[in-house]
C-alpha cells in the first residue's frame, strides 16, 4: 500500500496562514472565557479589547499583512510550492476575481480583508453597544463593586 503526500497549493497555504493570524486574536479570549472563575464584566471588557485590536489590524492592513505574507512565502518555500495568483477571467462565478498587481495584493484583497471585515462585523453584532443597559447593570455585581473605585458608579449614573 503506497501513501502519497499531496502538496497543498499556494492558495491553500495563503488561506491557512492568513486565517490562523486573523483568528489568533480571538484564540486568546476564547480560552480565557472558558474558565469558571471568569467574571462577566471582565469578559465584556476583554471582548471590547479584542474588537479594538482586530479593528486596529484592519486599519493597518498593509503593514500587518506584509508580515503575514512573509510567513506564507516561508511555508510555501519549505514545502516547495511556487507563489502564484489564480487566473483571472472576465466573468467569475465561483471565486473572487479581485483586481491586483501582485500575488500579495491579490491575497490581501481576496482573503485577508474580507475575513477581518466579516470577523469584525460578527463580533460587533454579537457584542454590540445596544446591550449598554445590561452591560452597565453588570457593574452592580458585588465582586466588581468591591474591586472598583468610583469610576463604575459614574458609569452607572450616565444616561444612555
Walk me through the topology.
Elements lengths: L9 H24 L6 H20 L1 H19 L23 H24 L5 H6 L4 H6 L2 H8 L3
The oligomeric status of these chains comes to: single chain
N-to-C order of helices and strands: HHHHHHH
Number of strands: 0
Helix content: 55-70%
Description:
By secondary structure, the chain is mainly α. The chain has two domains: 10-85 and 99-127, no CATH class; 129-160, no CATH class. The protein contains seven helices and no strands. Helix 1 crosses helix 3 and helix 1 packs parallel to helix 4 (103-126). It is elongated, with a radius of gyration of 21 Å. The model has no long low-confidence stretch (mean pLDDT 79).
Q: What distinguishing features does this structure have?
A:
67% helix, elongated, mainly alpha, 160 residues, single chain
Condensed summary:
By secondary structure, the chain is mostly helical. It is 67% helix and 0% strand. It folds into 2 domains: 10-85 and 99-127, no CATH class; 129-160, no CATH class.
Amino acid at each position: 500500500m503506497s501513501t502519497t503526500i499531496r502538496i497543498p497549493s499556494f492558495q491553500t497555504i495563503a488561506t491557512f496562514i492568513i486565517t490562523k493570524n486573523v483568528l489568533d486574536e480571538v484564540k486568546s479570549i476564547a480560552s480565557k472565557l472558558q474558565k469558571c472563575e471568569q467574571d462577566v464584566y471582565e469578559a465584556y471588557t476583554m471582548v471590547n479589547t479584542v474588537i479594538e485590536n482586530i479593528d486596529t489590524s484592519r486599519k493597518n492592513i498593509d503593514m500587518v499583512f506584509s508580515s503575514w505574507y512573509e510567513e506564507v512565502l516561508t511555508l510555501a518555500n519549505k514545502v516547495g510550492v511556487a507563489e502564484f495568483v489564480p487566473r483571472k477571467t472576465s466573468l467569475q462565478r465561483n471565486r473572487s476575481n479581485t483586481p491586483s498587481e501582485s500575488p500579495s495584493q491579490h491575497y490581501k484583497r481576496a482573503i485577508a480583508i474580507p475575513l477581518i471585515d466579516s470577523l469584525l462585523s460578527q463580533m460587533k453584532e454579537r457584542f454590540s453597544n445596544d446591550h449598554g443597559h445590561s452591560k452597565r447593570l453588570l457593574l452592580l455585581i458585588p465582586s466588581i463593586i468591591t474591586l472598583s473605585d468610583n469610576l463604575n458608579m459614574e458609569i452607572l449614573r450616565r444616561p444612555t
